[in-house]
C-alpha cells in the first residue's frame, strides 16, 4: 500500500485490510468490502480468501485472483467488482456474473420473459418482498439459477443496470 495518503487515479493500490491500516481517507478496506458482500448478498467471506482487492481512481474497486506489489502502475488487474465512493455501493455486472451464484440474499429470480427484458436493459414493474437497493437479477437455466446482472429495485420497479454494450438477447 502506498503510504503517501493520496489517491492516484493512474495506479492501483491494494485495499488496506482494516480501518487501522487505512492511509487514504475515504478508501474502503478489504474487511468492509468482504462484509458488504456477506451482509448484502450472503456471499461467504471465505469466497474471497484467494483474492486481493485494489482501488484505482476514486472508489473503483477491482478484484484479483492472486497477489501483486502495491502500488502498481498498470492499466488493469483482475476485474472491476464494486463502486464505493457514492451513497450506496454498487457491484458490477462482471462481479455479479462471476460471483452471483454464491449469493443467498438479495437475488431476484426472473422468469424467462422478465429475464429477457432485463438483459436488454429494460426497466420493469415487479413485486419483490426483500430489501430495496441493488439486487442480483437471475433466471433459471437448465435447473441452475444463473446471474444476469445487477439491478436497482426501488418503488416496485426493477431497473436494469446492464451496461448498453453488454445488453443482449437471451434467446438461443
Quick overview of this protein structure:
By secondary structure, this protein is of the alpha+beta class. The protein has 2 domains: 12-100; 106-166, Archaeosine Trna-guanine Transglycosylase, Chain: A, domain 4 (Roll), CATH 2.30.130.60.
Descriptive report:
The chain folds into 2 domains: 12-100; 106-166, Archaeosine Trna-guanine Transglycosylase, Chain: A, domain 4 (Roll), CATH 2.30.130. It has 3 helices and 10 strands. The protein has helices at 30-41, 93-99, 112-119, and strands at residues 13-14, 51-55, 60-65, 79-83, 90-91, 107-110, 124-125, 133-141, 144-154, 157-160. The strands form 2 sheets. A 5-stranded antiparallel sheet has the order 1-2-3-4-5. Strands 6-8-9-10-7 form a 5-stranded mixed sheet. The longest helix has 12 residues, at 30-41. The chain is elongated and about 50 Å long. The chain has 172 residues and is an alpha+beta fold. InterPro entries: DUF7122. Pfam families: DUF7122 (PF23437). One of its GO terms (biological process) is methylation. Residues 1-78 form the DUF7122 domain.
